[in-house]
Structure formats: C-alpha cells, structure tokens
Amino acid sequence: MHELSIAESLISAAVEAIEGGETGTAPVVEEVHLRLGVLAGVEAEALRFCFEVAAEGTPLAGSRLVIEEVPVLIYCSSCRREEQLPGVQGFSCPRCGEPSREIRRGRELELASLHIIDRPAGEPDEGRPRWNLGSSKSGRTS
User: Fold this and answer.
1) What is the reported pLDDT for 22?
2) Which residues are annotated as a binding site for Ni(2+)?
3) Cross-referenced InterPro entries, in alphabetical order (predicted)?
4) Among 115, 111, 116, CA closest to 26
5) Which domains are delineated in the chain?
C-alpha cells in the first residue's frame, strides 16, 4: 500500500512547513489540503485512512486531510484548446473526437495548503494535541 508512504511524506512536509518562527505559540494544524489528480494512481479513501494513522503522535494528529480531485485535462491539437475529459477510459477530445496524448492536468499529487491556528502557549485547545514548534504562521499556508 503506497498510500502509507505518501501519507508519511505529506506529514513530513507539513511538519517542516510549520516549524520555526516565534516561540511561545502552539500551532494546531486543522486541515491539510492536497491536490490529487485522477491519474496519480492514489486511492483517495486509502490515503485518508493512512494519513489518520500516520499522523498519530505527530503535530498533525487530529487534523483532517482534505483532497481536491483534479480531473484530466488534455490539449486537442485539432481544436487548439484544452478540454476536460469526462473520464479516464479514452483520451480523445470530447468536442471533435480526435485522440490526444498531451495531458495537461490530472497527474498532480501536491500539498496545496495547511490550515493552521496559532495559540499562545498555555491557552486551552479543546482536547487537540498541542505542539510547541514556534510557528508564527496562521490561517492558510502553502
């Protein structure tokens, strides 16, 4: 199950992104946003499960993995435009039927953003794990 290694890599990248900055704050990662292309070869539900398991004991414990599915976008040389495919069974232009090998989107596996709340050290966190990593980031980070 390669979803577990992908989840571990996402967690590692997210932890790296929130480290550093001011001391005295306890960042809480509420959501991790991922852009996942339908051709990436990753099962979204398996990745969510693996993320939850792999996040335990890390600063991301209790956070939610939000996955944005990225559809396949091809370039049609006949129509001279990009077209979104309705599925992955055929790589032909949905307008003219011309086959296309030029895939413009749909292979993504990208950590898009983190939704973080900074709390002063000692402030209640409503039962969420607290990690004093000294991040000055808050809101949306990429």
Assistant:
1) 55
2) 2
3) HypA/HybF
4) 116
5) 2-70+106-141 (3.30.2320.50), 72-104 (no CATH)
